[in-house]
Amino acid sequence: MTTLRWAVADGWTVTLRSLNRWAREPGVLLLGLFFPVLMMVMFGYLLGGAMAVPGGDYFDFLMPGMFALAMLFGIESTTIAVATDAARGITDRFRSMPMAPSAVVVGRSVADMLNSAAGLGVLIVGGLLVGWRAHGSAVETLLAIGLLLLLRFAFLWIGVYLGLVIGRPEGAVAVQILVWPFAFVSSTFAAPDTMPGWLGAIAEWNPMSATAAACRDLFGNPAWGEPTWATEHALLLALAWPAALVAVFAPLSVRRFQRLSR
């Protein structure tokens, strides 16, 4: 119990380090919080007029996808933060200190999840302002929010691993480039069956599409496209995909962290 207590205390200390950095640089934090809102306004108003969603408004279809997209964008900030600490030698200093080995990874995870929860809250308020509504029950709405944060938790471990592998913030540009195709090849903005067959199949099985489809069902928002196995079992996939990603990338991240400077 003493070891666990110190591990929690050390992890919280690392979390506070990130929170204090955001307090000293509020512009960076605000940009990260409001960028998804800007994306929502751009796509909703610039493209929404050309989108005909059966049984609903385009914003009702778009918002669950935008929520999932915001969770994906968190990969970039996690990767840059981890790579910056590694490049400046801060990670090595942490490893040389008498602190729990898990503190750095846990502290980074908690800080990023708090940031993502705040960003999701801002985006939900933005959606409400443009007319989006959740028509499901309170329990279903909370479950949908939980699925979104679960997806962010899975993407967080990918960001941690990539940051440790890249080791330099300049290399994070490659991650930013790859995030965009992954974001667009999904059901965020349009139904997969409107795409070419091979591209639609990729979009349909995108982890973001699973979470977006499950959230549309839980929020009571309209779906778009012909029913498929993936859409009919979206809730199952929205749980399975994050579990699989965490099972792969969490051990890889811990192992990579342990091997630094050897």
Give an overview in words.
This protein is mainly α and 262 residues long. The protein has one domain (30-40, 56-258). It is built from eleven helices and no strands. Helix 3 (58-87) runs antiparallel to helix 7 (172-184). The chain starts with a helix and ends with a helix.
Could you give a short description of this structure?
With 262 residues, the protein is mainly α.
Give the count of helical stretches: 11
> How many extended strands?
0
Bin the strand percentage: under 5%
- Tell me the count of domains: 1
State the low-pLDDT regions, or none: none
Between the first and last Cα atoms, what is the distance in angstroms? 30 Å
In helices, the fraction of residues equals over 70%
What is the mean pLDDT? 86
Coarse shape: elongated
Q: Helices and strands: which structural class?
A: mainly alpha
Q: Biggest β-sheet, characterized?
A: none
Radius of gyration: 19 Å
SSE run: HHHHHHHHHHH
Topology:
Layout: H1 2-24, H2 26-46, H3 58-87, H4 90-96, H5 103-129, H6 138-166, H7 172-184, H8 197-204, H9 207-219, H10 229-232, H11 234-258
Helix pairs in contact: 1-2, 1-5, 2-3, 2-5, 3-5, 3-6, 3-7, 3-9, 5-6, 6-9, 6-11, 9-11
Keywords:
about 260 residues, transmembrane, ABC2_TM, Nod_factor_ABC_transporter, 11 helices, mainly alpha, membrane, single chain, Transport permease protein, elongated
